[in-house]
Amino acid sequence: MIQIKTAEEIILMRATCALATETLKYVSSYVKVGISTDEINTLAHDFMTKKGAIPAPLNYHGFPKSICTSRNSIICHGIPKSDEFLKEGDIVNLDITTKLNNYHGDTSATFFVGDKSKFDSRIIELVDVTYECMLAGIREVRPGARFGNIGAIIEEIAHDHNFSVVHEYCGHGIGKEFHEEPQVLHYGKRNSGPEMLPGMVFTIEPMINLGKRNCKLLSDGWTVVTADGKLSAQFEHTVMVTESGFEILT
Predict the structure, then answer these.
(1) What end-to-end distance do the CA atoms of the chain give, in Å?
(2) Is 115 within a domain?
């Protein structure tokens, strides 16, 4: 069942989402050539805990770190490593989820490592289009609309640019639990799926691939990569349905 957040819960959601946003902004300034993904993890962990929050991914079903760092061909759930250093020409997604006063806030963004002007135009297009896919999905949020509209517009934009949309991983409801109903697909048909109602809170987080949409799970049980080894990008916001449209909480 999709939960409708109470007025009190919405206050708590706004607070945890604000902290997630603040954390992402803080660690993004450290995305530079030579830093390890584990160093970024430590920076995020310390920032969140000093603000009284718990890094939600840490020990979640056994996940060993406080954030996800997904570099280049990693689609999602990349595990930060002390021997994985950012290099000129990389792209990296930082996925931040805070747990503050028992409520979760979830956001992510993909960053260019090094001089963006030196990147291949197709890689820049991938990142830019992924961001636009997320925003377009958010613009579909309003009372009475169907969740399928989100996936339909994301898929349309991605395909218009000859990119592909990952099907196996999706957005999700969020609140007291890290993952709640509904699943928010990033592909599909308009006017399908559950109806959106005021007070629903969920993430929209399209994963868009440069090559084919197929993915595979690595032996660590977490890291998901593109099957063809090509790049993948992702952006994510936590969004609430309001009486008249939407509110981006992160």
Answers:
(1) 23
(2) yes
Query: Considering only CA atoms, which of 57, 52, 123, 147 is closest in space to residue 96?
Result: 57
Strands 91-100 and 54-55, sheet pairing: antiparallel
- Residue 194 included in any domain: yes
Query: Whole-model pTM?
Result: 0.97
The domain containing residue 182 runs over which residues? Answer: 7-248
Nearest to 109 by CA among 46, 31, 35, 47: 31
Q: Is the peptide bond before 80 cis (omega within 30 degrees of 0)?
A: no
The predicted-structure confidence for 36-68, as pLDDT tens digits, reads as follows 999 999 999 999 999 999 999 999 999 999 999
User: Structurally, how many domains does the chain consist of?
Assistant: 1
Q: CATH number of the domain at 167, please.
A: 3.90.230.10
Q: What is the pLDDT of residues 122-171, one digit of tens each?
A: 999 999 999 999 999 999 999 999 999 999 999 999 999 999 999 999 99
1 domain-assigned: no
Give the rounded distance of the alpha carbon of 58 from its chain centre: 16
Answer whether residue 11 is part of any domain.
Answer: yes
Q: What's the one-letter identity of residue 53?
A: A
Are 24 and 110 in contact, with CB atoms under 8 Å apart? Answer: no
